[in-house]
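Sequence and structure are no longer studied apart. To make this concrete, we show below a single chain and its fold as tokens.
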Amino acid sequence: MVIANGGGLSHPVQRHVRGVRCECPDAFRASLRDATEASSGVFSPKALDFLDEVIEGRRPFYFVPCRMICFGAWMKRFDVQVDG
């Protein structure tokens, strides 16, 4: 399934994350693991369990794990430090 965002662009993320055509679940897991570590506690490690449930079809697809991956990459890229 292709998902359209508000800007009219299509995102085939859902087919990459879950379903018959699951193309790269290990890459998503690794990316979310990296984001969780980069967040220094902002993201819960339980996010990985949530992603697994989405991949396995036990939860509906949500963009939240993808957003966490992007935010974690941003934190690493700009060397964002979390205090406390």
Notes: The chain is about 50% helix and 5% strand. Residues 49-84 form one domain.
